[in-house]
From TrEMBL:
Keywords: DNA-binding. PROSITE patterns: HTH_TETR_1, HTH_TETR_2. Residues 36-55 bind DNA. One of its GO terms (molecular function) is DNA-binding transcription factor activity. This is TetR family transcriptional regulator. Gene3D superfamilies: Tetracycline Repressor, domain 2. Residues 13-73 form the HTH tetR-type domain.
Amino acid sequence: MESRNRTFENLPGDKRERVLAEATREFAEHGYHQASVNRMVQRLGIAKGSLFKYFGSKQGIFEYLFSQTVAEFKKPLKAIRDDESGDLFERIERTLLAGAEFVTAHPLVYGIYLKMVYQQGFPMRDTFLGEIRTASDKYLRTLVANAAATGQLRPDIDQGMAALHLDAVMDRFLQSCAVPALNPGGGDIPDRETTRTRARAVADFLRRGLGAHSANSEEHRCR
């Protein structure tokens, strides 16, 4: 598989992007089982054998697409993790906004993720979702542990439970940015300014519940 992927990665950048865009469109519109390699190659104007040469199978196409998406999503999170400026709750706010920007920029990719979450028959569902959750848990536990070590959290807070609840909050926040029916205000998907306002409100709410009672916390509450 790795040698096939290298063959694909040796293609010109614009051709790689076009192949992945068509694959994303196909999986987003039809789900995994109904996705058709024939439709992909017809729109791309290439031989069916070319895709199999690059990826080996339909599953190989999806696995590659998934791995690339996860890697791209991790980039802004790594930057937030490594940038130690701001307290935990400011970093959670930045995390929410980074996720919202990703969802807005890649609506079809996020649509595939939602199908994976809600369709039990999705191939390798447990593996893919397990990888996402493991990465999210590791990221959040790092932020929480750093916050606890610097006195930003209430001393009675269980770090594992804090990370679990932060993950749930973020997942629900991103869904509200992509699915109109899940938008708390109803109607259309929120615009950028509304999303920023909500991200700050969520971060402040979390600070009131999890943050250490200090003058610094009170200052942030009054932003």
